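ok, trying the design again with the full structure, not the truncated one.
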């Protein structure tokens, strides 16, 4: 009896699953679904969730990946506006914008065919845009002269409307991945870069020499000003000293004996400044000021020993 009940339940469950598969389908968040009726476009569904459909051949569902995908062009040679050859690699980021047009252009959503079309489109756009720029706009020792960002923006502006209108593809970004030089012109580029560096070296040396001359001139001028100021101050001090000396000379003229006495004292002080032994006649100026007298008032020769005083012999 139990077997008889279980069999129809399993059969009913299988039938339900079969009906769900026939009449329902799921759209993931990363997908966009295109529903056709008898091979003709009916609708596209971008919202995730379960959706109703009629069994084949009335309805057929195509699920397409709606995430941003990247495509890279191979390393190819192109020519700049000034006739220089370059090797350039370009990449783009794209996703499906118009599912109906996309499915019409690429039956079944064949990604290989999509990339073939995009490759041709990128090649033509790349050659056209780079052909409007000079070699120095791509490769230069001066960062301000490089215009890679502007080139990428020009390529994006040129590719986006063509891809969207003709293939239902939205191109969100275009970039230059790699830039190279053919071997035939590599040496010329290096020579040009060396010449540019040498030019900068000479420029910096010239600026340094000019700055050195300016600094030396300022130092010489400051030196002359200081010397002139010092000479002026020395002249003033010398004049003041001569005026002061003139006052003393006037006093000495009134009393010549005082002047002689002071000069002799000064000479005596200088002679006896260091330890020394002098053997002199007692009449030798200015040492005659050190004369000593004996008991009978006779002047005797004197030996002067600094530090020991005068001794009679």
């Amino acid at each position: 009896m139990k077997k008889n009940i279980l069999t129809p339940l399993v059969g009913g469950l299988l039938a339900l699953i079969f009906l769900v598969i026939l009449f329902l389908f799921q759209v993931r968040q990363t997908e966009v679904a295109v529903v056709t009726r008898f091979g003709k476009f009916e609708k596209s569904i971008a919202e995730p969730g379960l959706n109703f459909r009629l069994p084949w051949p009335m309805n057929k569902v195509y699920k397409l990946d709606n995430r941003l995908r990247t495509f890279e062009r191979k390393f190819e040679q192109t020519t700049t506006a000034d006739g220089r050859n370059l090797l350039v690699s370009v990449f783009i980021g794209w996703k499906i914008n118009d599912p109906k047009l996309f499915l019409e252009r690429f039956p079944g959503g064949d990604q290989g065919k999509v990339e073939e079309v995009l490759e041709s489109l990128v090649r033509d756009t790349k050659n056209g845009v780079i052909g409007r720029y000079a070699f120095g706009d791509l490769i230069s020792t001066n960062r301000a002269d490089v215009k890679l960002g502007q080139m990428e923006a020009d390529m994006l502006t040129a590719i986006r409307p063509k891809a969207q209108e003709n293939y239902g593809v939205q191109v969100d970004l275009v970039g230059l991945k790699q830039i190279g030089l053919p071997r035939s012109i590599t040496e010329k580029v290096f020579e040009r870069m060396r010449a540019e560096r040498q030019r900068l070296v000479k420029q910096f040396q010239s600026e340094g020499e000019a700055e050195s001359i300016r600094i030396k001139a300022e130092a010489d001028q400051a030196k002359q000003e200081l010397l002139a100021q010092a000479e002026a101050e020395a002249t003033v001090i010398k004049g003041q000293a001569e005026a002061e000396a003139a006052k003393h000379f006037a006093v000495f003229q009134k009393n010549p004996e005082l002047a002689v006495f002071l000069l002799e004292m000064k000479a005596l002080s200088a002679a006896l400044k260091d330890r020394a032994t002098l053997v002199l006649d007692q009449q030798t100026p200015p040492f005659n000021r050190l004369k000593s007298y004996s008991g009978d008032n006779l002047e005797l020769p004197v030996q002067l020993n600094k530090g020991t005083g005068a001794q009679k012999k």
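Keeping the full-length input from now on. Residues 183-254 form the longest helix (72 residues).
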